[in-house]
């Protein structure tokens, strides 16, 4: 596998565009489009919030019931969530407009929205934007970046990654972009992710690996504990690499799995590290657990603890908050066996051994916790299963950003 520059335009046959359509204001990009020259097998995972947005309903139907997709149109500024029948009709109008503009079937068009909940989409503005986007579609890295910028809300930077992998002598490319900085606690926040690939792969195989990888990537990040109404991960593969079709239970499946896993994990970490107001990515590793669910539960409990996140912001080695978060997680473990470490580019320090503080240096701990990223490691000494979760520190700016989000 080789890491390359780019995002959604890295794979063969994919074009993208981002522009200002006037949804937010007259200056910021707020609409993006992704288009494949050929139809794509498509997989997806979606929010488990029972209050889910109209685009989630639309995309579920396309992913589960259409043979293929060929385009995605995304807007930022308005989430099209809690908008009733009018919101559903807006998705249909978007698909109809894209169908006409690109000459593809309505049921091959995916839609996505992010922004303020409860507002109706300005459909005249949306349709005008959809009609304008095809003329600026391009397969360049710059076009991919413009699309990645157009889907941002409170993100401070665009998020893109791409790789190539050899599948039986054919170079297969996978690229992606995502957005998300707040309302992030996916259970597939407002989190959107779009992956493009020129792989030739069975739809069932793509869905199986996507669901499995999302569970260990996006489902293991948290910024603020809020699961959004719009969480969506879409993976499109158009087969233009002309590799032998990837099927389940084959070496080729395993190779492609590694590439897609890298993409989704890196994008997950980019979201966690760009949490609203944060100053660092906070990684939590639970090691030597007896079972997978135990390790996952403990890791997520630590990474979502507001007190722990605040301590990370203050560069304070307050390990009691970590042990406390493990204790209320609901997972069974033996506190008197737990070792805890802090690690960063400044070094690694054991601060707890067998449930009690070591004679560690507070000065050294502060130095370690002053870096970005910071990792906490909890060794529960009960087996050989590990899990990793990602989050960020909790800062004053998080409250400021969300206190006036709508204004």
UniProtKB/TrEMBL annotation:
Membrane recorded as keyword: no
Role of this protein: Catalyzes two activities which are involved in the cyclic version of arginine biosynthesis: the synthesis of N-acetylglutamate from glutamate and acetyl-CoA as the acetyl donor, and of ornithine by transacetylation between N(2)-acetylornithine and glutamate.
Site location (Cleavage): 189-190
Designated name of the protein: Arginine biosynthesis bifunctional protein ArgJ
Keyword hit for Cell membrane: no
Subcellular location field: Cytoplasm
Pathway: Amino-acid biosynthesis; L-arginine biosynthesis; L-ornithine and N-acetyl-L-glutamate from L-glutamate and N(2)-acetyl-L-ornithine (cyclic): step 1/1; Amino-acid biosynthesis; L-arginine biosynthesis; N(2)-acetyl-L-ornithine from L-glutamate: step 1/4
Subunit structure, as described in the record: Heterotetramer of two alpha and two beta chains.
Site residues, Involved in the stabilization of negative charge on the oxyanion by the formation of the oxyanion hole: 114-115
Positions with a binding annotation for substrate: 153, 179, 190, 276, 402, 407
Active site: 190
CDD domains documented for this protein: OAT (cd02152)
Superkingdom: Bacteria
Family, as annotated: Belongs to the ArgJ family.
